[in-house]
Amino acid sequence: MSGIATFELTATDMLAAERLNFWAHCRSPRGLRELGLTFLIWFAIFGASGYRYWSWSNYPEFLLTDLTISLGAVAVPMLLRISLMPRRTRREFARSTSLHGPIEVRWNDYALDVDYPWGQARHRWSDFVRWAENASSIVLYKNENGAMFNLLPKRALSYADMGVIRTALAAHGVRKVALASARSPRPARQRCAGVSMGEER
Q1: Residue 163: left if φ>0, alpha if ψ -120 to 50, beta else—which one?
Q2: Using CA atoms, how far apart are residues 20 and 185, in angstroms rounded to an integer?
């Protein structure tokens, strides 16, 4: 099955994609390794620095303090990035003129074709290494670190469109990143879709 849509990206679309990209990275093998390594490093640093104060009598308190500081070292940067994300994303979108303007998206069982104001791109479904979705967006990743991705806002797609896209991704073995919630909003009366970043052809 095939489909076609015309759209213009908005700052809200990009913010939704950035949030999904962030949580998808945290749930990816690489993201989990980074979080785990950060925790272990801080756990080892605090444990080594406080070793001389350690004794069997204060072992529970010492372990609890070490765990709390290590978890804080992981959580605080994440919370800071999340809190700054809206302002940073909107500022970057305003500066990225290449993301502005009408874009036409076409898809079938084999590929996703995109007509940008500055050129054209074709993405075979097998080119994507993983994908993720939440209540507002579908994001298709072309590499594991998430630097190259394609965005499809769900507000712009019908349930049938989303079904075709999911089926095509599954048929080509593209791994889905499991997130807490991926319920789809009711499709808008006017169809549109968004894709950011691609390879020019």
Answers
A1: alpha
A2: 15
